[in-house]
Amino acid sequence: MRARFVALALLLSAPTLAGCGFTPLYATPGVSAGLSSIESVAPDGRTGFLLGQALDDALARDEAKPAAWRLTMDLRETRTPRGRRVDSTASRYEMVLEANWKLTSTATGVVALEGSTNTEVTFDRADQPYAAIVANQDAQSRAASELARKIQLQLADWMLRNGGQ
To answer: N or C: which end of the chain has fewer CB within 10 A?
Structure first.
């Protein structure tokens, strides 16, 4: 009996929810087409490459169409020791990855949007050299993925405000 009541309530509330004006961000009138028309230009270096790959995945770049936008970035990566051992060596590191980026129209060359985004990740410093390298590379990968997600959200917000260009 209770299940029928819940089902009836959901059925009756569906027209109300449909009329409220809610549109998912990536729905048809949303921003998916605009995001897929952004070409990201990755900065040099391993972290820049990882960021470029993460952005291409996040923006779902459509290679079949010419890019309407070009996203250029400058990266700054800092690594700060956190936590000290008895012998004064660092036991953990904090990596801060900051990107200053510009979204430029490929047709006009006009900068449409500029932003600065950063992210922080921490990682353990291992005693074994190979493990220390892997931990650092994993931190770079995690930071690049998170930074790409933040940039994607800022671009999606801007595109939504500007009619899903």
So the answer is: N
User: Which of 157-160's residues contact partners 24+ apart within 8 Å by CB, and which partners?
Assistant: 158/103, 158/113, 159/31, 159/34, 159/35, 160/25, 160/30, 160/31
With a CB cutoff of 8 Å and minimum separation 6, the contacts of 3 are: none
pLDDT tens profile 101-118: 999 998 898 999 999 999
d(CA 53, CA 156): 18
Mean pLDDT of 34-59: 90
Using CA atoms in the order 104, 106, 109, 112, what is the torsion angle rounded to 10 degrees?
A: -30
